[in-house]
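Progress note, sequence design subtask.
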């Protein structure tokens, strides 16, 4: 299965020091050009920019339907390209956190998972022992916005709440 990522999950996992988790779980991560430009080219201030640039398992792929990307103008350019790239690759899994982007992807039939979902998968596979401290770090270090009821549900699913 092809796994495509938007910028925020990459930034989140590098900030947590867990970029390698994505490689362990999904082998190869595909990013569209706009995400590469946001994180690597224009990402001088982004945490983990260099780690993402050096990761040979994060590969770029161009989006074919630029008209469809333009139609998603309410999203950021990287999000729009990531959603359309996932549409162009039926059965792909899209790593995406932004609420508006997730809604757009769902309406287009795209399979999505966010940072919290990836953390749950990693815990279930024994790659990390607990996720509560990771969620706390996401909120304090990254400014990850999270409704309290979602946090409680995720921690309960992880057996931590």
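Output:
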């Amino acid at each position: 299965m092809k796994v495509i990522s938007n910028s925020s999950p990459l930034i989140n996992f590098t900030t947590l020091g867990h970029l390698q988790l994505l490689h362990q779980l999904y082998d190869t991560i595909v990013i569209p050009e706009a995400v590469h430009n946001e994180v690597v080219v224009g990402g001088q201030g982004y945490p983990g920019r260099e780690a993402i640039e050096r990761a040979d398992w994060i590969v770029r792929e161009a989006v074919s339907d630029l008209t469809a990307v333009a139609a998603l103008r309410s999203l950021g350019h990287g999000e729009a390209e990531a959603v359309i790239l996932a549409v162009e690759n039926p059965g792909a899994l899209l790593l995406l956190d932004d609420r508006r982007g997730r809604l757009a992807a769902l309406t287009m039939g795209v399979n999505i998972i966010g940072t919290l979902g990836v953390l749950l998968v990693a815990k279930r596979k024994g790659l990390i022992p607990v996720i509560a401290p990771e969620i706390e770090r996401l909120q304090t270090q990254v400014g990850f916005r999270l409704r309290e009821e979602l946090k409680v549900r995720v921690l309960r699913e992880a057996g931590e709440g």
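The domain at 3-116 is CATH 3.40.50.1010 (Rossmann fold). Work on this subtask will continue into the next period as scheduled.
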